[in-house]
Every structure is written in C-alpha cells, then in structure tokens.
Amino acid sequence: MPAKNLVFDAEEIAAGIAAWAAIESPSVDRDGVNRMMDAAARLMAEMGADLTRHPGQDGFADVLQADFRFGHPAAEPGILVLGHLDTVHLIGTLDDELPITRDGDFLYGPGVLDMKGGMYLACHAVQKLLERDGALTLPVRFLFIPDEEVGSPSTRAIIEDNARWSRFVLVPEPGKEDRFVTGRHAFLRYKIHVFGKPAHAGVATGVGRSAISVMAKLINEIEAFSEVEREVTYRVGNVAGGTFVNVVPTECHAEVLCVAPTPEDFDAIQARMASIESPDEDVRVEIEAGPVRPLFRAHEGTMELLEVAQRIARDLGLELGHGQLGGGSDGNFTGALGVPTLDGLGVVGSGVHTKAERLIVSELPRRAQLFAGLVTALCEGNR
Question: Which class in CATH covers the domain with range 3-184+295-380?
Fold first, then answer.
C-alpha cells in the first residue's frame, strides 16, 4: 500500500517536535544533550526498537542507536536514519530570544528545524508505517548524534562504522522546498592562537605586543581568501582575548570554518591555512587543525536513491530537483564513503542557526509521507 495513503496529522507531529525542542541541548552541554537522548530513547522503546547507548566521548553526550531488525541477523545491512539532537542554541534561549511559539503556520523554537524536527518526523513516519505494515523486509536503524553542530569530533568513527553496515542512508536534515540534497561541500575547522607580549596599555611606547591587534590583521587576511561566488568561504566565527582594557593582551584565540565545494578547493584551504604566519616577528601564531567533514559528491548509488525519492515526491505533488550544497551534515561522512546517501529529508522552514528558526506546520504531513514512502520503496525493492 502506498505511503501516501498513510494519514499524518500536522498538529500531532508539531506537538511532538515542540516537546523535543523544549529540552535545551546545545552541543557543549553534555547533560542537556543526554536528556534529549533520553527522550528519543523513550520514543524508540515505545516503537519496539532494540536500544544501544554508546557512552559519550571527550566531554560530549552519548550516542543512541535504535534497531528494528524484524528477525534479520544483526549483521544484515539495512536502512540507516542518521541525524543529530544537539543544537547551536545555548541554555536560556527558550526563556529569552527563541521561546517555543506558534504563529499561524509557523512553529518557532531551538532545533525545530535543525534538526530535532527532522529526526522526530522520521521517527513518527516509521512509527506509523510499522503500525500499518508490521515487519519490514529490511532492517531499519536510527542513529542519534550528540555533537554534529561542532563537527562531530567524537562521533565520526561510529558514524562511519554504521555507514559501512548500511545499504542506504537517509538524513532528515532540514528539507528544501525545491530539491533533495545529493552532496555536501567539505568543511574544515581551525583554531588560531596568537601570543603577544604584556605591557601597560596606557603607556604610549613600550615592549608590549598586542595579540588582539595581530589577530585582527589575520582575520582580514583569512576572510579575504573567500570566493563567495564559488561558495568557497573562510569565516571567523568566534574570537576571545585579553583580560583588562589597561593591559596589552598577550593572548587571542579564534575559530575558523572553511568550506570547500571541490577537491581542489579542499587542498587549497589546507595549504593556505598551513602557511599563515605572524605579521609581527615578536608575536607567535599557532594554527590548530580541527574536525573535517569530507566532501560528499553524488555518485551512482545516491543518484539511484534520488530517482526513487523523486518518484515518491511526484506522487505527493512535489517536484524536487537535487544538488550539492553547503551547510555540512553527518551525511558528509556516509556519502564520502560511497554509501548511497540522500540528505535534506527533514521538515521545511527557515532561519537555521538564527533566533528566528521556524518550520512550516502545514508541510509536516506531506514530508512525513515522503519519508515513509521512501522507506517503503526501499523495502519493496528488496523483495
């Protein structure tokens, strides 16, 4: 029976997403993200999944794995639903700049779009599918990630291990109104450390060397490498330095996010960042390479998966193209390994990573039908 015959209620899905969004879970708050994992575990248990909780590493929260095996051996490959439950919104956001709010057809809140909304929608879609059809012909595994928003530094290995198990990977990151995501630009993270020399800032001349002044020059140099029209970007998003205004700052630290749409751009970014030098011989500069999301380019398996998804979308009145986009996801890891991966399968809305994050409530049933339909089609293709 086609998944479009499944009945989904927009308000029911919106209420579930709002309940998840009410649990604040910034990546850096281990306890908050684990509370979110607890909520996901309760829902998965209600659905009948076998749960595995992988303890958090390096100060991050746990990874939750939920398996629906339907009698298949544990090693038999199946469908991996991959997504994260951490957000970029700090504790206190709910009480301040982004409370959970309903305004007409929009639901606002931290993570409603990126990507608690998408993961809840995927869970709900599979739940309705199981209620109707019972056992499926392929195993289905959900993997809930705690640190995606900071580059998945503690979870890349487990994501890649699960990718190697998978026949297909479905990623419910925020959906686009006009396309599926069949590729992701590479992301490279760096930290810059600048060390100056102390002095009293009120003295006109002296031996002091300002780490902040040198950092300012470096930021201009680094961001000038960007070629925005080609989607090659170098952006400094976090800077900290100094102690008192009357003391020449001896340290300044910054974080840089670089985006590479091609292998050549990836290599160029690595070379440029490795070649950065201090503009002042009395000031030391260190460049620390951080987590990398590899380039995910569409390949044959992903394009075959896309064809299935586009057929289902057309049945639902959606004409969706495809493309490689920025805004990295954990799909970078699975796609880069050559596993058929389709991204952008979540809820639709706007305001990702801002205090205006919102989803479109009326689109929730159709997006749930699309996800359920894709799972159904992949299982039918296995018969």
Answer: alpha beta
